[in-house]
Design a protein that fits this description.
Helix content of chain B: 40-55%
Largest sheet of chain B: 7 strands, mixed
Largest interface: A-B, 21 and 22 residues
Order of helices and strands of chain A: HHHH
CATH architecture of chain B: 3-Layer(aba) Sandwich
Distance between the termini of chain B: 16 Å
Number of domains of chain B: 1
Radius of gyration of chain A: 16 Å
Structural class of chain B: alpha/beta
Number of strands of chain B: 7
Strand order of the largest sheet of chain B: 3-4-2-5-1-6-7
Oligomer: heterodimer
CATH class of chain B: Alpha Beta
Shape of chain B: globular
Number of helices of chain A: 4
Distance between the termini of chain A: 43 Å
CATH topology of chain B: Rossmann fold
Number of strands of chain A: 0
Chain lengths: 60, 254
């Protein structure tokens, strides 16, 4: 089944995921790819807490 | 008084440049601005056409037992207080003999500035007595960095052990801005995405791109809106100034 540009978000909505989650998921995938591409970046990030943990602890 | 503290993540990332250009842009937007240089490198004054050989500044005045605020300078409507050119020995004497825990608090109170005035505190990247006072007294901390792997390393280190992170109040008012983003650099763009993912809403939605006109403006002893008023850098500094104005308006709403 072929989806048009906005249909992905409609599909997410129909299963209860907020509309912009698709964009967020795509962005996270891109960041992981970038981190793997540059060895030093990957090494530094591996010692870092996730953004969610930072947020829960009151920010940076 | 709107107290904005500008601090580079490391020396050379453009803290003084952002302080000077932001001050000039706020002035262009009809704001009252005073820039207070707390950075011993004493570079801020050079953005405001002060002679290089002129060593006058508030810190030098203190060590010479002169009135510190007599160092006030004014250029094209910008009021600023240069640090002063200190030797290593004089700087050590300043720290030991003239600075105490409340020095900056006393200095800012004695300026008796109106509530709508923007006070921009330009501080160095290290943590010292003066910087601690500036951070504590500010309403907003703007931390400047480059989208480099070296700055990522510094940021992660600071997140794990930094003075700001361990203080919830400082952490809440602390925000980051990317400076010197090179438009055609693949690594810069990818690092920007990494930083965005890491800092979330702590990263300002405005990036200052690397722009030759910023360097040229400094070489002409002025800011970019005077040297190259139609440049991209001017548009970016204007956006940054407007973003900060709307942030403070929201903050000051009852």
């Amino acid at each position: 089944m072929k989806y048009e540009k906005n249909d992905v978000n409609e599909l997410y909505k129909s299963i209860g995921i907020k509309a912009n989650s698709y964009i967020e998921i795509k962005e996270n995938e891109a960041v992981i790819k970038i981190q793997r591409k540059w060895p030093l970046v990957e090494q530094i990030i591996s010692f870092c807490k996730t953004p969610l943990e930072n947020r829960q602890q009151g920010g940076i | 008084m709107r107290v904005l503290c500008v601090q580079g993540l490391q020396a050379g990332v453009g803290g003084s440049t952002i302080s000077a250009n932001l001050a000039r842009m706020l002035l262009e937007l009809n704001q009252k601005v005073l820039v207070f240089d707390l950075n011993p490198n004493n570079l801020l004054r050079l953005h405001f056409n002060m002679d290089w050989q002129n060593s006058v500044g508030w810190a030098l005045n203190l060590t010479q037992k002169k009135l510190w605020c007599a160092a006030f300078e004014c250029e094209h409507g910008i009021s600023f207080l240069p640090f002063g050119q200190l030797t290593y020995q004089t700087h050590q004497r300043l720290i030991v003999e003239y600075l105490d825990d409340n020095k900056l608090h006393y200095q800012l109170n004695s300026l008796d500035l109106s509530p709508e005035t923007w006070l921009i505190l330009n501080i160095s990247s290290d943590i010292n007595l003066l910087n601690k006072q500036a951070l504590a007294l500010s309403n907003f901390i703007l931390r400047v960095f480059e989208p480099s792997v070296a700055n990522l390393s510094l940021l992660i280190n600071s997140m794990q052990s930094n003075y700001i992170v361990n203080d919830a109040e400082l952490s809440n008012k602390s925000f980051f801005v990317i400076n010197k983003l090179i438009p055609h650099s693949e690594l810069d763009h990818e690092m920007t995405l990494v930083f965005k993912n890491l800092l979330l809403n702590k990263l300002l939605p405005i990036n200052i791109h690397f722009d030759e006109s910023i360097k040229e403006a400094f070489a002409h002893k002025t800011t970019v809106n005077i040297h190259a008023p139609t440049s991209t850098a001017v548009r970016e500094f204007r956006t940054l100034a407007i973003w900060l104005m709307s942030y403070f308006n929201r903050l000051e709403q009852p």
